Amino acid sequence: MMMALYSIAPASTPELEIAALQKELAGLPAGERIAFWAERFVGTPYDEYPLGEYVRKNVVVADERVDCMYLTFRTVELALGTDPGDSRRIALHLRFLHRGMVENGRVVNYEDRFQYGEDMIESGKWGREITSEIGENSTVTGPSGKSATFVPAGLISQSPGSFRSGDIVFFVNPPEKMAGGVIVGHIGIIKKETDKIYLIHASGKKERGGSVKKVLLGDYLSIMPFEGIKVTRFPADVQMPE
After folding, report:
1. With the C-alpha atoms ordered 173, 165, 18, 97, is the resulting torsion angle positive or negative?
2. Domain end position, chosen among 79, 94, 120
3. What's the average pLDDT block by block, 10 residues per block, for the chain (242 residues)?
4. Is residue 241 in a domain?
């Protein structure tokens, strides 16, 4: 498939164009579609609102500003949907511990949303965990007693076969930062290009700003403040429930 290079974030993209792109991408594996949509958000401003703009407005789509969790939500929804409406339907499944509910065009139960990356992993909704395939695993236990198995930063394999486009990377906090038992401190998405592995992530801080960036994974690993990573992967032909 010949694919044009798109770099305009969906926030400025009419739904008809999104629908056309979704149709064009339909034959690609899920991971390739996820990476494609993630890259379209590069340059999008970071969402500085503490709970997220989408939660504040009680909406499904709020593409003008994104944080790492919304970027993950929206990228996967666009990748797995057959059209914009289908992506919104998928959002009500993927973003929630149970299922989202919409009344009069507004989400009415965002208190049921995933708020922690570790819960996304454990739910099984966000792909199969492949942490053990990325490198030698270790275990960390925070002050609350909650523990997590992960790949330490220095043991993460960056061989050509380790990651695939569309893999979701959950960055594990060091024990001293696991306040309240929060294991995952950041989330990003992998994009592979020949022999290079990139991380696409919403780089910023609440109330300080930032933007979505695409960086070499190795470069980010060398400076990141996290202990290591956990990784999930969707099957190539993933099917969403009705």
Report:
1. negative
2. 120
3. 48 83 96 97 93 94 94 97 96 96 96 95 96 91 80 85 94 86 94 94 87 96 94 92 74
4. no
Question: pTM of the prediction?
Answer: 0.92
**Neighbouring C-beta atoms of residue 166, cutoff 10 Å:** 28
Helix (H, G, I), strand (E, B) or coil at 236: coil
Residue 1, pLDDT score: 37
Distance CA(50)–CA(69), nearest Å, equals 12
Residue whose entry in the numeric block shows the structure tokens 């969906």: 10
Reference 91, options 131, 118, 63; nearest CA is 63
Local structure of 224: helix, strand or coil? coil
Query: In this structure, is residue 194 part of a structural domain?
Result: yes
Identify whether the C-beta of residue 101 lies closer than 8 Å to the C-beta of residue 110.
no
Query: Looking at residue 12, what is its pLDDT?
Result: 64
Provide CB contacts within 8 A for 49, sequence distance 6+. Answer: 55, 56, 65, 206
Q: Which domain holds residue 161?
A: 121-233
170 bridge partner residues: 187, 230
Distance CA 97, CA 125 (A): 9
